[in-house]
Amino acid sequence: MSRIKFMPSGRTINARKGKTIFQIAREAGIHLNTSCNGVGTCGKCKIKIIEGKVDQLTSSYSLPQTLQDQGYSLACRTVVLSDCTIFIPQETRLLGSELLEERGEIHLTEAIDRVGINPRFRRAYLALPYPSLEDNLSDWQRIEREAVKIWPGRQLVPTYRVLQEIPSLLRDSDWKVTADFFDRGDALLLTNLQKGKKTIGPFGLVVDVGTTTLVVELIELSSGSVWGKTSRYNPQITYGEDVISRVIYARQEGGLSQLQREVVKAIEHMAKKLIEESNLSPDDVSGIYVSGNTIMLHLLAGIDPSFIREEPYVPAASFGWWEDASKFGFHLLEKSLVYFLPCVASVLGADIVAGLLAAGFDEPGPLRLFIDIGTNGEMVFGNGDWFLACSCSAGPAFEGGGAKHGTRVIPGAIEEVKIDRETCDVEIVTVGDMPPQGICGSGLIDLLAELYLNGIIDRRGKFDFTCKANRLRKSNGDYEFVVSEGEDKTKDITITEADIDNLMRAKAALFAGIRLLIQTGNVSIEDIDKLYIAGVFGRYLDLEKAITIGLLPDIPIDKIEFLGNTSLLGARIVALSQDFERKAKEIASRITYLELARSSRFMDEYVSALFLPHTHLDLFASVAGKIPKKKKGGSC
Amino acid sequence: MSRIKFMPSGRTINARKGKTIFQIAREAGIHLNTSCNGVGTCGKCKIKIIEGKVDQLTSSYSLPQTLQDQGYSLACRTVVLSDCTIFIPQETRLLGSELLEERGEIHLTEAIDRVGINPRFRRAYLALPYPSLEDNLSDWQRIEREAVKIWPGRQLVPTYRVLQEIPSLLRDSDWKVTADFFDRGDALLLTNLQKGKKTIGPFGLVVDVGTTTLVVELIELSSGSVWGKTSRYNPQITYGEDVISRVIYARQEGGLSQLQREVVKAIEHMAKKLIEESNLSPDDVSGIYVSGNTIMLHLLAGIDPSFIREEPYVPAASFGWWEDASKFGFHLLEKSLVYFLPCVASVLGADIVAGLLAAGFDEPGPLRLFIDIGTNGEMVFGNGDWFLACSCSAGPAFEGGGAKHGTRVIPGAIEEVKIDRETCDVEIVTVGDMPPQGICGSGLIDLLAELYLNGIIDRRGKFDFTCKANRLRKSNGDYEFVVSEGEDKTKDITITEADIDNLMRAKAALFAGIRLLIQTGNVSIEDIDKLYIAGVFGRYLDLEKAITIGLLPDIPIDKIEFLGNTSLLGARIVALSQDFERKAKEIASRITYLELARSSRFMDEYVSALFLPHTHLDLFASVAGKIPKKKKGGSC
């Protein structure tokens, strides 16, 4: 029998020699990702041998050489011959269907395969010769002499923090250490030194600072494996739900540093959890890669964002640089270096630049449109050589805000709505099949489309009382439609005419932005080869309905792809590859940003889009066929 | 009449138009350096026109073009035509005779002339276009866009601290700012931003951290002008006079950071004084250049120096790197960057590397010997291509330590001694002509030579009682010679046989080191083309006497040159020129350091040197002629 230890959980299982790791894991109830069921063809069950003797079965799938060099192999093709320590990367631990960013992950893997893994941080094991009277170089020079053998011709520089630790650490470790270096371009910086030999790492923390949600991933930079992922609300919410109220708070005495402290504390709290779960130490985390919108980055960096909200809307920083984490108040990770992904403009942040990387916009190709829908609808249109971008203020309509019974995506949020044409009955699907609590963004879009297709609202979004819908009523001076009945009338979940107005304005702003980009690019909607939708929002969106209401352009649905949290994915690509760090800056600098604040063309497009699906029905040929003939005196 | 304002004092004088600045200054009692008395041939009265209209008279001396470009001209050739603001550099303010480092200054000027002024820091005035909706780049990109016009092709990076200030500073200054950049090699780092246009600067602080004395200079990096200089005792003295006791103190809980705080505080205190005297702000100081011995640098950097004193004598760091000043506890100068000059070994510090630069050792040439005499006698021998170095522990003998009436160079210290052959009377010269307080290093060397030349001590340094010197006596079991009589016997200043032993051991150690270097270099003493003596000690040294006692090798006196505080001068060269920063590292890496700790050859040489002047008299041919025939029963 052998003892097989599975990392990062540390769970240890006794198993017969000669079994595959896939079999051993399955028998122990550890489910590894697979679609070939362990016969070596799908390549999804990759694991890393940290310690122990194994044998490899033949396989029709072959792992990239760079992964093989780092000890990766397929669990179903790896037979254990001794006690082993096995590391299961995040992507192998999760079943494919559980991945929020499945398509995005595929893009990322393809992108990394294209350029190879080449992070800024490098780890080296150094067994230093003992000092003697004949060889009494300084401690640092002793390290330098060995490290330069690995990277000939490179200039090596110590960081002050590490220098302070060097004398005792070298002597306590019998002169055998693992050194982490940061490639600054002109020199390799020694950023960390640990006792003995580390077979894994170095690690990076990938952070998406959303206005609402923080997401943090722990990744092994040398392999690209995700070791853990966690998310939580951005604690800055206490100081304002939206970015504007946070900017206002930041202007108060001490407000900016308070907001900075909150978000740094939250990131470190999440990092601590991930580091502990993986049995690592904070010293293993060399780099922190931060993506997010321009204001969130200013707040994390502690830089005054005031002028972002005042004409002519100028941010202080466009980022795209490295700094010591300690400067921003990181304590646990004080030795790390932080990279802020580059921003383009006040309302076009690093999250969008990251998104473009995740969507493969760094490669020249056909015309593609990238949309990230939130409070603002940011969109970029281009072919990899040129990029046009704009940002339309959609308000919080698609996040469930601005509607009487609107809600975020919480358990019980109505996410799908279907209205029966004959009976006018409303079928709803809620998140987690919980009792309905409100209507989230995707539910509102469904509802708008269903109300329109069933003639309950007209093209202007106004209720048509000629249809005598029994779910239509007047409440507090506004007309509303009952979506779901509660115990009594006051508990009903409804949509009001004002809610519909809000939605109409939001979808009109987004579509006007799309039209403006396409017209400025001198092409037409049919020329769009791909439409990528970023963000969690996209995941729940019914595309057909989104086209029906005129939110998305009328293009074949197979041209549309959801990419998930591309802000996070893009930051991960940057973490894994210096080429992508460079590409991020290139893309950011090549984007032509269209300022809509005073654009009369945008206003014209906006007004034209304030109809269902649009003033110009010829733009929505596929919708035209679905619009019902007006039905008089129906049962609704 | 015009109003002429002299900086940095700020003194303003009314003067008739058409007069030269030299005349105006002289009439107002401001003495400018000159040796041609204002006729335009010596080039010593250079000043800088900060503001105002002037005319230039023809001159037979022409200032280097780089200085002219910066507004420098000769005071005696500059005629005022309007109100003017004139800056008088330190070297023009001081008379040549007051310069402690006259020879060293000349070397420095030659060196800088050779490579040109090319500091790491560059200052640029940027008048930024106002942002608009059509041009709403981030604040940082607006700065970058203008700066890159000055330095095309360079990558520009902001530092975090400056970024935090950018938004309000740009708007408060009507978008007109002076920016300081640090050339990191791969990128230009924006390290400081100030409102409006600065016509002077950027500035650097050059610091020599001596075990006993701190010296700080304020220099304008763009011109090389010294704006001020100050010195004081190293406050670490409270924690131990010599380096060893400080290393011991540093090992105590909190000891290291206490020593670091003390020296940083003292440097900032001195910096504050210099900055205020020059009407500058701390923000004008971009770089701090630190030289000193290896232990002093460890203590300033807050790095444990313990292992320097334990076999095999290994320092933690060899320095030669830049770091943020804030990391070392600088507050006033928290935005500055610090450069620590490179060290070679535990007992061969940055002060010696700096010294070699100041002595022109970066240039290939004849065989030269560089000696810095203090508690340790550090010496380097080479021809610019190769360098041999060693460090001999001389003890504090030449600093007046280890002698019953020894003293540092203080007012009243006996610095010269002459014994009358016939009467045995002792003539003394004291520092500042004050009543004698003790004997300093140069006085002790004089005394030893005089005692020997007058037959009062023999070649082993023992008193010869056959000469019946009436100044010889026994006190507390030891024999002593009365140098200066006090009010009563207990106030006499004497030298004891034990003192002489100490001196003999010290000079023997130094000469043994010199011999070892010369033998290892496979040459003989006659091959030495130049002997440079660094340090304040050298200034008071009577060379003939130093040769007489066998401290210095017997070479023609015109081959010997005093250079003054070469640690400071070398640091200044590094501040003014990136080439010299590189050269410093090159020299440091090319030095072959001979470890004497267990060298039997050194021990042999040492024993041979324990005689006056040496066991082998043929090594001191010039001394042989002076040694008196033994005089029996003289009057001494």
Overview of this protein structure:
The structure is a homodimer of 636-residue chains. The first copy, chain A, is built from 18 helices and 29 strands. By secondary structure, chain A is of the alpha/beta class. The first copy, chain A, has five domains: 2-98, Beta-grasp domain (Ubiquitin-like (UB roll)), CATH 3.10.20; 121-195, Ubiquitin-like (UB roll) (Roll), CATH 3.10.20.880; 208-352, Domain of unknown function (DUF4445) (Nucleotidyltransferase, domain 5, 2-Layer Sandwich); 358-396 and 504-623, ATPase, nucleotide binding domain (Nucleotidyltransferase, domain 5, 2-Layer Sandwich), CATH 3.30.420; 400-500, no CATH class. The first copy, chain A, has a six-stranded mixed beta sheet, with helices on both faces. A six-stranded mixed beta sheet of chain A has the order 28-27-18-19-20-29, sandwiched between helices. The model of chain A is unreliable at 95-101 (pLDDT under 50). The interface between A and B is large, with 51 and 51 residues.
